[in-house]
What does this fold into?
Amino acid sequence: MGQPLTVGIVGCGAISAQYLKTIDRLPQVKLVAVADLDPERARAAAEQYAGVEALGVAELIADPRIQVVLNLTIPAAHADIALQAIAAGKDVYCEKPLAATGEDARRVLDAAREAGVRVGCAPDTVLGTGTQTARAAIDDGLIGRPIAATATMMTPGHERWHPNPDFYYVPGGGPLLDMGPYYISSLITMLGPVRSVIGAASRTRSKRTIGSGPRQGEEIPVTVDTHVTGVLVHESGVLSTLVMSFDAVATRAPNIEVHGERGSLVVPDPNRFDGQVLLTKLGDGEARELPVSAGYAEAGRGVGLIDFLSDREPRAGGTLAFHVLDVMESLLASARSGRSVDVESTCERPAAVALGDPAALG
It folds into this structure.
C-alpha cells in the first residue's frame, strides 16, 4: 500500500469527532497532530489516539511530518487557515464551504495553483453509496433523459440543538451556505455543473434563542437570510428547484428527487453517505428500491482524503467546491436583484466512485 497519508487537524469542534472516527478506520491515512484555539480541546482530542500530538495552530501547519492540513474551523476562518497551510507547502482539505466568500475561495485556489498543492473540500458525502447509486442509475439510462430535480431542506434552525450556533446566522452561514453544499454538490455530481440561477430569499426573525448547552436561553443576532429558494439551470438543460430553510417546522418532501422522461428517482439525504434510492418507471405506478451499485460503502466524513493518495484533483475537490459556492452566491445575488444571474464558474463533473470499502483501497 505504501506509506500512509499524514494529516494534521486544525479545529477540534463538534464536527471533528466524525472525521476522527473515519481516519481511525482508514489504514491509508495517519493522524499526526491536532490543534485548536482552545488548547484544552486539542489536548482532549489528542488523548483519544495513541501517538497524536496536541500542537499550536502555527506549529501544526509548519510541522514537516504533515502532508495534508484538515481544516475544520468555522467558515469565517477557512480561507485564513487554508492560505497559511498552502504557504507552508501543504495540501488542504476544508470543511464546507470552501470559504465564507467567493473572493476568499478564489484566493485559496489561486494560491494553491501557484504553490503546486491540492485543495479538497467537504462534502464528501457525495462519494457514498446513496448519491453514487443514484448517479449510476441516471448514467445507465434508467430514467431516460433527465428533465428536472428538486432539493428540499427545511428545519426550524440549528440553534435548537447546537450549543454555539452563532456562526450559522452570520455571513458564511444560513441554511444555504450551511446545508446547500450537500444538496448542490449532489445535484452537480448527478446532473453536471450549473450555468445560471434565479432565486428569492427571506428572513423571518432578527434574533434566535439557543436551546441547549451552557448558553441555553441566550439570544443571538441573525444577519443572513434564513429561507432561500430558487431554480438552478444546469449546463445540460436540467432544471433543479432548491429550497433551503431554517424557518420551517417540518416537511414530508424527499430530500432530492430527479425526474426523467421515463422515470423518477428518490435520492437519499445528501448529508448522509448511504440510504435508499427509489425508482419509479413510467407505467409502473410503484417505486422499487435499487440495489447499491456504486460508491464507498460504510463511509464517513473525511473519506475524501483518500483521493490525496493519487495525483489527480480530489473528487471532493476545490474546483467543485468553488463552483458550488459560486452557485450559492449567485442565488443570493439573484434574490437581491430579482433577476436571473449567470454563474461565472464551472467545473468538471467528478469521476464516479466504484462500489467498494474505502478502507481496502491502496
